[in-house]
Specification:
alpha/beta; rod-shaped; 5 strands; 63% helix
């Protein structure tokens, strides 16, 4: 994929509703960057579909990280209850863990 250098002349007709949609490989000249900043025009790289896929991937990564943190918190609470408070009843541990996690939200 080759990069494409764009000037003001190249982008003038591509601005729609305050947005400029460009291919991922586009390179903007300094004058274009200044113009876009001055006119408060948002630059969107890639197709709308690519951007949606990217956002979905970010969301999935964030959800996975939250699940891992949640598991880690549960393990820490269980260890604390078993070792420091001598609670061995699995049902009580689950109840307390649920309450603690609710308070932490």
């Amino acid at each position: 994929m080759t990069k494409r250098f764009l000037t003001l002349k190249d982008i003038e007709n591509k601005i729609v509703d305050g947005k400029l949609h460009l291919e991922k490989n586009a390179i903007l000249s300094y004058s274009v960057k200044d113009y876009l900043t001055e006119k408060d025009i948002k630059v969107i790289y890639g197709t709308e579909q690519e951007n949606l896929v990217s956002k979905k991937e970010e969301c999935c990564v964030e959800q996975q990280e939250n699940l891992e943190k949640n598991r880690d918190i549960s393990k820490i609470i269980e260890k604390l209850l078993r070792n420091d408070f001598g609670i061995q009843d699995k049902i009580k541990i689950e109840q307390i863990t649920r309450i603690v996690k609710e308070v932490l939200k």
